[in-house]
Amino acid sequence: MGHVGGPGPRRPDRGVAALSVLPTLAAAGTGLAITAAIVDTPYLLFAYHDAKLHLVLDAADTGVALLVAYLLWGRYRRSRRLQDLLLAGGLLLLAIAGLGMALALHLLGLDDGRADVWLPVTVRVLGASLIVAAAVSGVRLVRDRWAHVLTALPWVTVALGLVLTYALRDVLPVALAESPPVSAQRPVIAGHPALLVAHGLTAACFAVASVLFTVRAGSGPARRDELIRWLGPAFALAAFARLNYLLFPSLYSDWFYTGDLLRTGSYAVLLVGAAREISRYWSAQARAAVLEDRRRLARELHDGVVQELAYIRLETLTSVEDSGHRDRMVAACDRALDEARAAIDALGRSTDEPLGFVLHRAARQVADRYHARLEVELDDSVHADDDQRHALIRITREAVSNAIRHGRADRVRLLLERDEERRRLVVRDEGMGFDPATVRRNTTGYGLTSMEERASALRGSVNIHSTPGEGTTVAVTW
């Protein structure tokens, strides 16, 4: 037996990496353009008096944050990845720091411009910190002893914050003036220094997370992760939203701010990523269900049809006296068994397997059945879609079977290669060979017509070269 060869490890796809960067650059460019336009143009304002719009956006953003956090929690339960758990916790804290905490503090009578400012700001900083930690953690798994601690962290943080805020409500400093600035045309950096630092720190956390998630989305397993791909642009917008909140006092509930607009844009991008993740999940579930049905059908074929054919073959060998008739019946049973086993193999295998591996297995099954030696040289970079794979498997089995059974070959060579823009499958033997013209006049043939029809379905061609006494070469090009 030979070996399964290939082109070696592939380098990361630079095109995929570039595509992962473009959305983040677009989001960052949008945030920068909006911020620069507001700073430089007196006709655009940092804030507009519209309490209803502010409330609607707060509610929408909170809902999206909770949805994505729930989605990430489900991913964590399946994968046990630290990244998913930290992201879920961070988004949960951001959601709580929004509309929900404002309502809770109002019901507790803590809406005096102190507790209702410091607690949401602190929770938001912690949420942004968890998001940065998630971006750094990568694909690490959560150890069992830390799982419960990290899961409870957001809830413990909020509960502890409420208790401390209530206990220190009389000593907390005033974060903002009672009323917003008179003009919203120019930046007004006002408020307690700790509040300004919190806004800046949150913006920095989101910016770092945006860069890290963008880099991760362009390399490794994350290239196929729909949600991770959208985290970079989402957090880029979130960073500019925090920057806008820093440039103008923005915690007055009856005003609509440009930071609100950018923040909602950030959550809209997150929602796109969540929708694509959900779609991908259900597609995977559907594929798994189809694969399970195929495996069930394969088991039924194996336990039913194959066993009956094997019984018929055995009875034919022991009960039919005419040797010519017996040989024809046994050959027919062998062909039927090959067809049934090929169907079972096709039904029970995943379509994600490399083409070379699938063809090698199909040829090996036939070669082992007739005790022939198989040599393979397969290029792992050659791919085919599902319909093409099925046709190539059938051609491979037919060609190997013909080489051994009719050509009396004790060694068969299987080759899969790429020739410029075309792909080629070759089955070569050194058996008895035959005259193709003579065979084509024989209605029974060696399956040549079947192979030609399958090659035509590939939008390709099959070339069969054989000379009596010199072996046969079957080459399929598509």
TrEMBL record:
Please give the start and end residues of each transmembrane region: 16-39, 51-73, 85-109, 121-142, 149-168, 188-215, 227-248
Q: Which keywords has UniProt assigned to this entry?
A: Kinase, Membrane, Transferase, Transmembrane, Transmembrane helix, Two-component regulatory system
Give a yes or no for keyword Transmembrane helix in this entry.
yes
Cellular component terms per the entry's GO annotation: membrane
**Domain Histidine kinase spans what residues?**
296-478
Which residues, if any, are the signal sequence?
none
Q: Name one Pfam family in it.
A: HisKA_3
Return the InterPro entries for the record. HATPase_C_sf, HATPase_dom, His_kinase_dom, Sensor_HK_TwoCompSys, Sig_transdc_His_kin_sub3_dim/P
Q: Which SMART domains does this one have?
A: HATPase_c
One GO molecular function term of this record is:
phosphorelay sensor kinase activity
Q: Which PANTHER family match?
A: NITRATE/NITRITE SENSOR PROTEIN NARX-RELATED (PTHR24421)
| Protein name per its UniProtKB record | Histidine kinase domain-containing protein
Native organism taxonomy: Bacteria, Bacillati, Actinomycetota, Actinomycetes, Micrococcales
